[in-house]
Amino acid sequence: MNKYAKPLIVGFIVLVVVSFLIGLLGGAAGVDLGLLPMLTGLFAGVFTAYIMANLAGNRAGVQAGDEDRAQAASLIPPPGKALAVVYREGFVAMAAGMNLALDGREFAQIKGGRFTAVAVEPGEHWLTAGFGGLAGPQNNAATAHLVLRAGDAVVYRATVSLGAVKNTVVLEPAPGSRDDLSAKLRRMSMTAPDVASL
């Protein structure tokens, strides 16, 4: 089934139900509402379908266990590796899952208020962040160039900046000291990365 079929079906149902209920209320009150029931239903149906289509790219993520979350929040990578951490902040599109990829291979999807961390080989890497579903074409993806040595830990903050035509995903080094960032991550939920994809 097409991922947009469900939003369209639900939007149509909302259109019919809202139009019927407003028409019923108008009829019970003895008022001729004209096109108001249909226009209100159309607005409600289109709005519902639009929101659901924006969330159509969401996937069910696996929540990391307490031990993995604490290890990632410590910002200490495994021996011989580097650690790349990304967390989401901001209200804009917080319910839409942001897809994260390293060197072109997706490894996690995070929503607002969550983070993920992945141990990587030292060297040069490209980190990208963008949306799936209908939210994808409405937002410009972001890319960050990483050059990591063994023992390095980098933390990036992912936000969404509103634009006139298109929003833009912003991926920037997180502000704050290592201790501050570690404390911040300890307060957040962690989505486990799909290390098999890397």
- Report low-confidence residues grouped into runs of 5 or more: none
Tally of contiguous helical segments: 4
- Under the CATH scheme, the architecture of the largest domain is Sandwich
Helical content stands at: 25-40%
**Biggest sheet, strands in spatial order?**
6-9-8-1-4-10
Distance between the termini: 28 Å
In round numbers, the mean pLDDT is 86
CATH homologous superfamily title of the largest domain: Carboxypeptidase-like, regulatory domain
| Rg | 22 Å
Oligomeric state of this protein: single chain
Keywords: Membrane, Transmembrane, Transmembrane helix
Transmembrane segments: 7-29, 35-53
Protein name: DUF2846 domain-containing protein
List the helices and strands and how they pair.
Elements: H1 5-29, H2 36-54, H3 66-73, E1 82-88, E2 98-102, E3 105-110, E4 114-120, E5 123-131, E6 139-140, E7 142-148, E8 153-161, E9 167-173, H4 178-186, E10 189-190
Parallel strand pairs: 1-8, 4-10, 6-9
Antiparallel strand pairs: 1-4, 2-3, 2-5, 5-7, 8-9
Helix pairs in contact: 1-2, 3-4
